């Protein structure tokens, strides 16, 4: 079993391209053939009408689980659909083994509607620290990658988030109201202020990519599920950005975060958004 960051780095040197190939293969065999071709019996609700799952989600996660564990013996998987079936499996994210964190189709609502705004998210973590991540948008054939301490890239080109333009409203993607408590709704009201332009988010993974590319300025999210955040947060960090919870601490994939939290293009913007959230409306 791998037990140090150094050996994870060695694994990535040898097998990062194999991980990419597995992700692309999952998309080409299980996701894209069902895009815009889903039938009613291939779509189910989990917790409500905004929380959907399809055969593409299930089959892509199964494929990635098998392939990634085979690439890294001794590793485990925390996948969205497996955790839905067995919530106790989420505890593996707090264990000692290397863990693959998988969201097979992030943006399932967009996928079901036949839109292109969905992606596959994979992160590799050890001891609660995300060490590498992959964000693949199959309908656009774009792949963003990040490795801790080695930068973020989109289709091989280095990403730099930069800083927001002076004098322009901050573009902030926020949680859908259906996924917020009354207390969190109150916190998000803090963004209804001069100089900030909040909007409802789409795929979390693509929102993080937009920040890493400098196309969006920040997020304000109110849920902790690691499969939605692990890959994107590392991407933002390695592009020069930052993330903070309401207590001013970085977001932890192992949980226990003060919510909502923010990820932003730079540390100053993260502090500003976190302060607004803490102040509420």
From TrEMBL:
Substrates-to-products reaction catalysed: a myo-inositol phosphate + H2O = myo-inositol + phosphate
Family annotation (InterPro entries): Inositol_monoP_metal-BS (IPR020583), Inositol_monophosphatase-like (IPR000760), Inositol_monophosphatase_CS (IPR020550)
Gene3D superfamilies with a match to the protein in the record: 3.40.190.80, Fructose-1,6-Bisphosphatase, subunit A, domain 1 (3.30.540.10)
Annotated keywords: Hydrolase, Magnesium, Metal-binding
Coiled-coil residue windows: none
This enzyme's EC code(s): 3.1.3.25
SUPFAM superfamilies per record: Carbohydrate phosphatase
Protein's name according to its UniProt entry: inositol-phosphate phosphatase
Organism: Streptomyces levis
Taxonomic lineage of the native organism: Bacteria, Bacillati, Actinomycetota, Actinomycetes, Kitasatosporales
């Amino acid at each position: 079993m791998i037990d140090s960051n150094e050996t994870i780095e060695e694994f990535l040197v040898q097998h990062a391209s194999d991980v990419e190939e597995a992700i692309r293969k999952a998309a080409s065999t299980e996701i894209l053939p069902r895009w815009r071709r889903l039938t009613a019996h291939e779509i189910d609700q989990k917790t409500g009408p905004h929380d959907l799952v399809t055969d593409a989600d299930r089959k892509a996660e199964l494929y990635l689980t098998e392939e990634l564990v085979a690439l890294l013996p001794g590793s485990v998987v925390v996948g969205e659909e497996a955790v839905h079936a067995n919530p106790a499996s989420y505890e593996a994210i707090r264990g000692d083994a290397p863990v693959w964190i998988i969201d097979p189709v992030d943006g399932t609502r967009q996928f079901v509607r036949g839109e292109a705004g969905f992606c596959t998210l994979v992160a590799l973590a050890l001891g609660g620290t995300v060490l590498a991540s992959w964000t693949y948008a199959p309908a656009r054939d774009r792949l963003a990658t990040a490795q801790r301490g080695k930068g973020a890239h989109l289709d091989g080109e280095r990403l730099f988030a930069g800083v927001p333009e002076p004098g322009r409203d901050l573009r902030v993607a926020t949680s859908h109201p259906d996924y917020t408590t009354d207390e969190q709704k109150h916190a998000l009201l803090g963004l209804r202020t001069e100089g900030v332009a909040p909007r409802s988010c789409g795929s979390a993974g693509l929102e993080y990519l937009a920040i890493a590319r400098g196309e969006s300025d920040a997020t304000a999210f109110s849920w902790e599920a690691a499969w939605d955040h692990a890959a994107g947060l590392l991407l933002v960090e390695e592009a020069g950005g930052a993330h903070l919870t309401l207590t001013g601490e970085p977001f932890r994939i192992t949980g226990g975060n003060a919510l909502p939290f923010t990820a932003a293009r730079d540390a100053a913007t993260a502090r500003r958004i976190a302060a607004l959230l803490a102040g509420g409306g």
